[in-house]
Amino acid sequence: MRLQSKIIFITTPVVVIFILAIGAISFSMLQEATVEKATGNTRSFLNTTTGNVQVLYDTATKDIELFSNSNLLENYLLTTDEEVRYTLLQPTIIRLFSSYQKANPNYYEIRILLPDGYEDTRVVLTDLPNITEEEGETEIFQAMRRTDNDLFTRIYRNPDNGKISLLISKKMLLRDPNLNPISSPKTLRGYLVVTIDLNFIDKKITEAVDEYGTTFLLLDRAGNIFFQSGTEPVLSPLPGKFLQEAMDHMKGESTFTVADKTHSFLVLSSNVNDSLLMLAKIPKNHLYAASYRLGLAVTFTTICAIVIFSALLFYLGKKFIVKPVILLRNAATELGHGNLNISIDQSADDEIGELARSFMEMRNNLQQSHEQIKRLAYHDFLTGLPNRVMFLDFFTRVVENARRHTRSCALMFIDLDNFKRINDTLGHNLGDDLLRQLARRLQETIRKSDFISISSIDKDPDMIARLGGDEFTVLLTSIRDQNDAAIVARRLLLALAEPFMLDSHEVFITISIGITVFPHDATNEEDLIKNADIAMYHAKEKGKNNFQYYSNTMNAEALERLTLEGELRWAVERNEFIVHYQPQVDAKTKEIVGLEALVRWIHPVKGMIPPNNFIPVAEESGLIVPIGSWVMKTAVRQIRDWQQQGVPVVPISINLSSPQFQSKEIYNIITSILNSTGVPRKYLKVELTESILLNAEEEAINMLHDIKKTGVEICLDDFGTGYSSLNYLKRFPIDVLKIDRSFVMNITSDPKDAEICSAIIALAKCLNLYVVAEGVEGRDQYEFLRDKDCDCIQGFYFYRPMPAEDIEKLLIALKKPQKEAMEVH
């Protein structure tokens, strides 16, 4: 699509949308104004009419209360002598009612009904026929009797004249003071009933007319319409949808919309009282007729504006935008072909002129930018050393040159030891500063002429590069023999032994170096890089701060380890693990008082794999977490099964690895397993080593306290072999102290081991800790520990680890003598 077309297609919709938005807003505002005007006038009429009806109700209520309090009326109703009542008193009552009607002409019928509904007295203003004097069976009299209130009001159609009227009645509850004591209850003597003409309400509603065709209605809760404006016939009752909406809005004033099959109405409601409602029904097609006409005018104006604007935009866009841009496009094409002498008119004092000047500036800076990008692509931003891209490119050339000239070269992989701890302790800023200082010291240590730059690549000098993180490489491009690489490695170790100053902090670091030699170890770059990496990790395994040459043995070990890790992952999914249990024996009674759960791997091909072979791999790969959780679930479920089978149960100790503890989910795992199995907490112990506690954070310490609070005991395993500190025994909620087998092994032959064991036991006793000795394999070891007051013994002298089935038999067998002894006793 051409630029001019794009401009039109982009800008025209914006203008169209803008114009349409203005029209829509105008249309909406007109609609709102129309609705506001209509609803305002209608609401005013509703409120006025509602007020008139309410005043009528209030006046009638007060009047009937006044009428009912007449002493003459009370005497009339209390008189039981019919001759006196109808001859002497009734004419007076009739004159009284007539005086009421003269004062209130709307009260066209006043009656007295006896309790059974018989019409005792009736006074009317005009010749109003009386269909019946027996009102007892009429619906309105029955409603009058049922009401709990003395007053009863209802709008109804009077059967005597067929007119909608307001009926209001008052129960006449009286006590004859001459015959009844004051304490006796009042009795119903009859009803005073007033029928009120509603012509003025009818006229006001039926003659109500506005420009929107509004229909006004007065109705009750049942939907019965009493008065309706307009010429339409009065509906009785109101249609269901209108009635439901009206009932939902009986309280207060409300506005809502109701639609039938053909029309939609805006309905306003006004609550008269608990039984009456005023409605105004405005047809929306009448309400919005004016705004619809304006909408057509707005639409026509919009179309005209779009056509005129599009034509104008086409002309102006072509003259002031398209032509200058075409010139710039042609110049850019020339520049892309390498023509830096292209000339562009820069005289225009607008955005096109600014673009032209920027274009020329871009041309002038292209070469400089190219050089800068090239450097960024080949050098590490932090240290300024060659990066991985430059190293790999250079390494390929060095290997090719060495192969061509039949010479050797050496590749050294360097990794900082414990750099993460420095980063976490001092922060990443100081960690970056350390890497910069390290890079400078590496450069100073290697001869200056050994450092490579792109321009001197043909000389094959040595290279130092940073691959990323804390990994560096040194490439010795030409060596006489392998010992040359060792000389450089020793020089590096010695140079980095000096401290580094990081913001007033004196920091010492060590490095691990892996060395591989071409062509002795491999003949291609990929294998050489892999070999150097393997050798570097071997140096770390040898204790760090040293260098190691690559050997085929290392590769075999690395491959075996990688294979083992892969098989270990499958073992987790295939449930190739089992749990053995080693009993723990009371040193005094020799009874089994506990078990330690030990995981075993049954490889489908290799058979039983010793824990020492796969546990370290599991910890490094993180697989120890699911394995550890599985061991805990299996052991706890085993306790539950033994309990259900009636097998004597003793606590089981579960070893927690460092990754499990650091995952911070161990508390939830323990409580979830115990809750799901229902096993009491006292039957579970967890064992942690000193190395786990060494780097424990405050959150982990709190979690350990939470575990202790559940009732699970905490054991400190292998005490004395790690970074032993009495502070552990104070800070951590330890219940059990386990003496490592390395001290127990020679307690009968090495006085120092004997003294250490004695001291550990004495210390534990002072702190009220339970002591378990591991690795007890001889009688003399057992007796020494027993005599030193060690609580518990674990080792081959008593029991080896065995499957759950054998443990079950052992527990049952050991329980039988106790049971038999109890029965004999």
Describe this entry's structure for a reader.
It is a single chain. This protein is an alpha+beta fold. It has five domains: 69-197, PAS domain (Beta-Lactamase, 2-Layer Sandwich), CATH 3.30.450; 202-289, Beta-Lactamase (2-Layer Sandwich); 343-375, no CATH class; 379-550, Alpha-Beta Plaits (2-Layer Sandwich); 587-596 and 633-796 and 805-812, EAL domain (TIM Barrel). An eight-stranded mixed β-barrel has the order 18-19-21-22-23-24-25-26, surrounded by five helices. Strands 2-1-5-4-3 form a five-stranded antiparallel β-sheet, with helices on one face. Strands 7-6-10-9-8 form a five-stranded antiparallel β-sheet, sandwiched between helices. α1 (3-68) packs antiparallel against α8. The termini are far apart.
